[in-house]
Amino acid sequence: DADVTQTPRNRITKTGKRIMLECSQTKGHDRMYWYRQDPGLGLRLIYYSFDVKDINKGEISDGYSVSRQAQAKFSLSLESAIPNQTALYFCATSETGARDGYTFGSGTRLTVV
Amino acid sequence: GENVEQHPSTLSVQEGDSAVIKCTYSDSASNYFPWYKQELGKGPQLIIDIRSNVGEKKDQRIAVTLNKTAKHFSLHITETQPEDSAVYFCAASIQRALNFGKGTSLLVTP
Description:
The structure holds 2 protein chains of 2 kinds.
Chain A: E1 4-7, E2 10-13, E3 19-25, E4 31-38, E5 42-51, E6 54-57, E7 64-70, E8 73-78, E9 87-94, E10 103-104, E11 108-112
Parallel strand pairs in A: 2-11
Antiparallel strand pairs in A: 1-3, 3-8, 4-5, 4-9, 5-6, 7-8, 9-10, 9-11
Chain B: E1 4-7, E2 10-14, E3 19-25, E4 32-38, E5 45-51, E6 56-59, E7 62-67, E8 72-77, E9 86-94, E10 97-100, E11 104-109
Parallel strand pairs in B: 2-11
Antiparallel strand pairs in B: 1-3, 3-8, 4-5, 4-9, 6-7, 7-8, 9-10, 9-11
């Protein structure tokens, strides 16, 4: 099994719908992150969490919310999806935050029509 | 916040040649600089990293150099092979998370 598992792998949804992307990890890491990847824009930070009670906004958090249900689970929600949220979404974990490498999931490709 | 610039956005080399990707960062407090390789349909994978107390690090055909004064770091791949074709991302630490460059699409042609 993968260390960081994202579900679903692909999703098509309609404008205005609520959608949740899920991430679970078996690394035992406290720190988890959600990034968004768009062509030509690289990876941009949406939210990050250093433990269950520590949730922080990244540079592009508007239109998104997160839930850290347990150390191993970190979900990203789009309350009312819009077409410009069409992107590839990655969850990542790390042991010590911005001082060591991340382990990424395989991504969720989301299309909002 | 931290701004990470990466160049070039695309790079095409012949098999066996070297490839160099360069990044600059803005926050002088950044102290960790990883490089990731992303193959089609997969998440980015860490290939090498360097910390601010080191100027150069090498791992087989891959090396990274860091110039803290100029605030830039580079990835060097020697003797490139077709399987090196991928998108490469640099990153720099910003307090509690990493800030990524926009990526370089590397194509190694046989």
